[in-house]
Amino acid sequence: MAATTAQSGTLPSGTGICTTVPDILYLPELVFGGLVWILVASNHVQPQNPLGWVMFVSIFCFVMTFLWMILFAAGCHKNSSGWAAADFVYHGLAVLFYLSAGVDLAFITLVFKETFGLKFYQINVAAVVFAFVATLLYFIHAVLSAIRWKYF
């Protein structure tokens, strides 16, 4: 059975990030964020693509989450006590970014519904759903990171 949090005073490293909450959420965040990135990138929008913010958020969060996961897995956080707070701050920022990107993507999808054509409209709807799933995952991670930070 997976532990709900790391032991008091320690953050997981190595394969421990695959067995503790909130760190187990790194992989689903990467999957759903990558899906948003792929689906938005596969669209062609006329007039020029207004989804630059969505692309920035999905790429930024994908890269940063991957780097954050690698830092935790490598144990780079062992020599500092600010990592629990930094984990909360990063995931809180990711929630705000993904929420704004999801709302932007949903708005553009509705506004350009007739312009897209059915295929691209369906792709955008899927991207909207995945953006909000990614938002939810980052939110859960941020809340659990805040709890871990409180008891760290």
From TrEMBL:
InterPro entries: MAL, Marvel, MARVEL-CKLF_proteins. It is a multi-pass membrane protein. It comes from the Eukaryota. The chain crosses the membrane at residues 24-45, 51-76, 88-111, 123-147. Keywords: Membrane, Transmembrane, Transmembrane helix. Residues 17-150 form the MARVEL domain. It is found in: Membrane. This is MARVEL domain-containing protein.
